[in-house]
Amino acid sequence: xxxxxxxxxxxxxxxxxxxxxxxxxxxxxxxxxxxxxxxxxxxxxxxxxxxxxxxxxxxxxxxxxxxxxxxxxxxxxxxxxxxxxxxxxxxxxxxxxxxxxxxxxxxxxxxxxxxxxxxxxxxxxxxxxxxxxxxxxxxxxxxxxxxxxxxxxxxxxxxxxxxxxxxxxxxxxxxxxxxxxxxxxxxxxxxxxxxxxxxxxxxx
Length: 204
Known about the structure:
Layout: H1 2-10, H2 13-36, H3 45-64, H4 84-106, H5 110-142, H6 150-170, H7 174-203
């Protein structure tokens, strides 16, 4: 379904601008969540790098909109996003559900819980990004669009590797826990895709 949704989006400049803006919003929300998970004093280089790169992705995606139409999507208001309620709910709900899961499995609280949630939520999002961006890029190439997300694909691959390295240090059993987190993310992502599809059907 995602493939056909993206093809419909890329074929329409207004929808495409909203899609880029929606991705930008999500990258920006992710960057803010990473910063919010930081310890007041013990901040490692990887966390700073991730927050900086997610912010840069948000900027890069927003900037790509001008290749379609400079007048479109100046803000993150609901009217300039696709499926705004689901878009804004996705990351927040993922964070809350993963925190709940980690609390029950590891009995964590405070900063320890925030950091564990950062590891697992970021891992799930990087797995998703590794699937989503290449599909989108292939459709952009096929449509001969001026927009491209190749630089984001390369960085997201690096992020995933870094998250795995940190998760290995967090728990010997990280893969089983990560699999549970992936299930939580998949349910939320599928709901988001359904909402996108419903919105496209209404606007068609």
